[in-house]
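Input record, target 12 of the design panel.
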């Protein structure tokens, strides 16, 4: 088993040991001083977790010269804007793990008439704490295959939770919910997702898909521009959006990121708005 495969397992085991030590401190009366029975072991486990996290990041980082960007079709149509884009920084999400080095997040930004408020609800400092998913124009929008491909993995069944686009809700997502999802593994981080084999050692992962919307299963073949599911808000997500990434393998725990570019769009920078026509992928 490779280092990249062992490290995520070691991290989750470390969390379990740490929780066991914390619980043991309250429910048992171990012999000896507390620093020797709980504090010191907990510090050792924490040190191992830091070392494991460093090792995981290094193992997931690209090796050698970056691969040339793989040109694929955009995964949506309509008017969108980018967040956490590799056009601004690499790794785009602050980490190489789970093949996220060149990942991008996009949110729908449909046109509105002059004088009308934006269709996408703005971030709020306090209220409302949460919003329902249907308040966001991205929710339920079709997701399209970025190339002719074979479906290699599909994961469904996780709920589409309320938005986390207020300051208290975002803090909860980052400090509590996100930590728990990380402990539970990448499937809880990505939520409902699908992975396509594009050929030539390149795979595409779509994350935070709407529960019950996936139209494909492992082994299916799809054509560029074919609908494969719909945008949702499952997993470690603050609002309905698409997280898309290319990578060098189908296993999110061990994959390394691969750079991309979208035909007719390029790689939109954070905050940049772009529009994709309805004929995307038609020539594929």
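The sequence produced for target 12 reads:
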């Amino acid at each position: 088993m490779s280092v990249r495969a062992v490290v995520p397992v070691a991290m989750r085991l470390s969390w379990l040991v740490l929780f066991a030590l914390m619980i043991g401190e309250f429910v048992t009366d171990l012999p000896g001083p507390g620093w020797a029975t709980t504090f010191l072991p907990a510090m050792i486990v924490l040190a191992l977790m830091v070392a494991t996290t460093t090792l995981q990041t290094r193992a997931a980082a690209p090796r050698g010269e970056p691969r040339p960007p793989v040109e694929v079709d955009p995964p949506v149509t309509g008017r969108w804007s980018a967040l956490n884009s590799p056009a601004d920084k690499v790794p785009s999400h602050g980490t190489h793990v789970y093949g996220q080095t060149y990942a991008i997040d996009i949110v729908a930004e449909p046109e509105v008439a002059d004088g009308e408020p934006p269709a996408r609800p703005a971030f709020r400092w306090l209220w409302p704490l949460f919003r329902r998913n249907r308040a966001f124009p991205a929710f339920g929008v079709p997701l399209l295959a970025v190339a002719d491909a074979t479906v290699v993995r599909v994961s469904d069944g996780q709920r589409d939770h309320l938005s986390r686009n207020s300051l208290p809700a975002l803090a909860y997502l980052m400090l509590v919910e996100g930590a728990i999802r990380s402990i539970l593994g990448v499937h809880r981080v990505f939520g409902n997702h699908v992975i396509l084999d594009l050929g030539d050692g390149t795979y595409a992962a779509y994350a935070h898909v709407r529960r019950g919307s996936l139209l494909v299963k492992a082994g299916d073949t799809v054509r560029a521009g074919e609908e494969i599911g719909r945008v949702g808000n499952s997993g470690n997500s603050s609002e309905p959006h698409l997280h898309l990434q290319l990578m060098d393998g189908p296993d999110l725990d061990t994959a390394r990121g691969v750079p991309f570019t979208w035909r007719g769009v390029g790689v939109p920078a954070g905050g940049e708005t772009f529009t994709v026509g309805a004929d995307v992928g038609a020539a594929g």
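Residues 3-60 form one domain.
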